[in-house]
Design brief:
The chain is an alpha+beta fold and about 90 residues long. It is built from 2 helices and 3 strands, in the order H-E-E-H-E.
């Protein structure tokens, strides 16, 4: 029973993380950037920057603002990991 309660709590927190991202993303998407919720494990949310964030020199500022926004909305999170996109070159 305890395991099921933990899964329900984790599932609810995952929904809360996604809702918070939905609130925070409009500011990023106006510049072609974005973020997607990847996972939640042991209270640690992992979010990946996407879109034009791959090439943007301000992506660290965006990541910091995203982290602060999530921390303010969801103080129950233990930590927030932000994954940065990597530059990918097509084979020529």
């Amino acid at each position: 029973m305890e395991g099921q309660r933990g899964q329900e709590t984790n599932s609810e927190l995952s929904r809360q993380v996604q809702r918070a991202l939905d609130e925070l993303l409009p500011a990023m998407t106006t510049d072609g950037g974005g973020a997607e919720f990847m996972s939640l494990e042991a209270g640690v949310a992992t979010v990946r920057l996407i879109g034009s964030c791959e090439f943007c020199p301000s992506r660290q500022l965006s990541a910091s603002a995203l982290r602060r926004g999530l921390e303010q909305r969801l103080p129950e999170l233990v930590a927030i990991n932000i994954l940065y996109p990597t530059f990918s070159r097509s084979a020529e």
